[in-house]
């Protein structure tokens, strides 16, 4: 799906009107008809008491026409105008509909479905105290909460905090807006349903990742056809990270997974992942792996992809392993976790790379790479991911809700799968393993990143159908990878 800014939405609407496809009044009628149709098919029961709260602008007009259509369909609908009736064009053209509606003075204490049509995408200022109190009252009602186009109080484009309506479902027109995938307001939007009202889209800001693909396996295929993934992961005390990474790579289709394993982790690793090939190495006193050039370089040369960083530690020895590996790797590479910490100390390594690189930071790691605060990254996720990807010609997977994939050519994608139950230690190791498997199978870096984050989130969503959000584990995600 495409994600449009406010200016792009308005330009699309104006182009549609200028070209004679619609009038603005027809656009509003179309939006209301499609909204009512969705609600009837997916939300409403015939005996529901419905309250529609309308503002003075076009969003209020959308709500007014929606209420009229539902009322004509036999539903019990009340309408509230907390700030007065809609005055903008074309909303005021539909004021005659009020004569056929049950207009009430105040938002009721109870209803079954509450529809928010106070403010639309043009909202760009802090709420005054009166509007804020209206939204507080709406949020306090126990009902199915539906927002029309955008939850009231939400800034469609801006990254500002503020009071806003919390919707269970948002019926948004034409396309998603940035607020649906970026904090802080993605929390307010609930389930987003894009309502197609027939407006053609020419320009867009971002896209979502809406699916994945896997290479087809020939009947006579052998393990070498699906690539050799080399894992440089795990130090003493962090066997879990390399176990999860290896299992994820194997469960995502890698033909061969080979992992450096320090002697103190060897028994734990081999008993947990007997399918993996190991390269036994020693362990320094501080727990770091002892990997020499003579051990590392031949394994890199034989690999189709490399994953480096999961659980390797933050020692001087770990930093040297990362520097040594990145200076010599000529196959697609994933850098995660402690590998990113080492990279942040020598970022110029990326300019000397000889193959595609995918980095997989969370906000804190991205902040270190960019030399800013985690709060700064959180407020500008897409901008920083895009800038870093373009500057260093790498693919950035910025983890979090609606994980971002930013590509070296400046494109930004948002993932549509995943859930808060995945916010636990080890989930990132699983993702790194999936990406490594995709690269080993021959997928181009950008596609591998998009496929992997979608599969990772989808496996997490499938696991959530079996386990609680609090009880969901990275190993559950791996188990679900096998079913995709």
Properties at a glance:
484 residues, alpha/beta, 12-stranded mixed beta sheet
What does this structure look like?
With 484 residues, the chain is an alpha/beta fold. It contains 15 helices and 19 strands. It has helices spanning 6-18, 24-42, 58-72, 129-140, 239-251, 266-272, 293-302, 316-326, 338-344, 363-370, 374-379, 381-392, 427-440, 445-464, 474-481; strands spanning 2-3, 49-54, 76-80, 102-104, 113-117, 144-148, 169-173, 191-195, 206-209, 228-232, 256-262, 277-283, 289-290, 305-308, 333-335, 357-359, 395-398, 404-406, 412-415. A twelve-stranded mixed sheet has the order 1-9-19-18-17-16-15-14-10-11-12-13, with helices on both faces. A seven-stranded parallel sheet has the order 4-3-2-5-6-7-8. The mean pLDDT is 96.
Q: What portion of the residues fall into strands of 2 or more residues?
A: 15-25%
Question: Structural class per helix/strand content?
Answer: alpha/beta
Rounded mean pLDDT score: 96
Which runs of at least 5 residues are low in confidence (pLDDT < 50)? Answer: none
Q: Provide a count of the helices.
A: 15
What level of helicity do the residues show? Answer: 25-40%
Q: Give the total of beta strands.
A: 19
N- and C-termini, Cα separation: 22 Å
Gyration radius, in Å: 26 Å
Give the strand order, joined by hyphens, for the main sheet: 1-9-19-18-17-16-15-14-10-11-12-13
Global shape: elongated
The description of the largest β-sheet is: 12 strands, mixed
């Amino acid at each position: 799906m495409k994600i449009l800014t406010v200016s792009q939405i308005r330009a699309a609407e104006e182009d549609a009107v200028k070209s004679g496809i619609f009038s603005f009044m027809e656009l509003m009628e179309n939006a209301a008809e499609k909204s009512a149709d969705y609600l009837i098919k997916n939300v409403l029961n015939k005996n529901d008491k419905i309250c529609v709260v309308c503002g003075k602008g076009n969003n209020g007009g959308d709500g007014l026409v929606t209420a009229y259509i539902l009322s004509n369909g036999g539903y019990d609908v009340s309408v509230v105008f907390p700030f007065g009736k809609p005055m903008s064009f074309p909303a005021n053209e539909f004021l005659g509909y009020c004569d056929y509606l049950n207009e009430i003075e105040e938002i009721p204490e109870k209803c079954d479905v509450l529809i928010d049509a106070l403010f639309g995408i043009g909202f760009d200022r802090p709420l005054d105290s009166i509007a804020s109190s209206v939204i507080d009252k709406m949020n306090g009602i126990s009902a199915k909460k539906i927002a029309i186009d955008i939850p009231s109080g939400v800034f469609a484009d801006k990254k500002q905090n503020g009071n806003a309506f919390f919707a269970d479902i948002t019926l948004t027109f034409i396309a998603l807006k940035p607020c649906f995938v970026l904090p802080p307001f993605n929390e307010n939007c609930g389930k987003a349903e894009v309502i197609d009202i027939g407006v053609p889209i020419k320009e867009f800001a971002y896209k979502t990742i809406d699916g994945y693909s896997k290479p087809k396996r020939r009947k006579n295929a052998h393990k070498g056809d699906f690539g050799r993934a080399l894992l440089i992961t795990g130090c003493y005390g962090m066997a879990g990270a390399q176990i999860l990474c290896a299992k994820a790579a194997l469960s995502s289709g890698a033909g061969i997974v080979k992992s450096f394993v320090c002697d103190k982790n060897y028994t734990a690793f081999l008993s947990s992942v007997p399918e993996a090939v190991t390269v036994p190495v020693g362990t320094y006193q501080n727990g770091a792996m002892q990997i020499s050039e003579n051990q590392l370089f031949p394994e890199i040369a034989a690999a189709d992809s490399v994953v480096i960083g999961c659980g390797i530690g933050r020692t001087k020895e770990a930093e040297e392993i990362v520097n040594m590996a990145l200076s010599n790797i000529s196959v697609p590479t994933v850098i995660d976790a402690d590998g990113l910490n080492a990279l942040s100390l020598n970022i110029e390594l990326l300019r000397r790379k000889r193959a595609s690189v995918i980095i997989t930071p969370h906000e804190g790691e991205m902040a270190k790479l960019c030399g800013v605060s985690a709060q700064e990254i959180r407020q500008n996720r897409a901008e920083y991911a895009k800038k870093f990807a373009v500057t260093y010609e790498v693919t950035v997977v910025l983890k979090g809700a609606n994980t971002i994939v930013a590509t070296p050519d400046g494109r930004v994608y948002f993932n549509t799968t995943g859930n808060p139950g995945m916010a636990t230690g080890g989930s990132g190791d699983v993702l790194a393993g999936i990406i490594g498997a995709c690269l080993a199978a021959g997928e181009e870096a950008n596609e591998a990143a998009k496929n992997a984050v979608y599969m990772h989130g989808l496996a997490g969503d499938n696991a959530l159908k079996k386990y609680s959000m609090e009880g969901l584990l990275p190993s559950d995600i791996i188990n679900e990878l096998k079913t995709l």
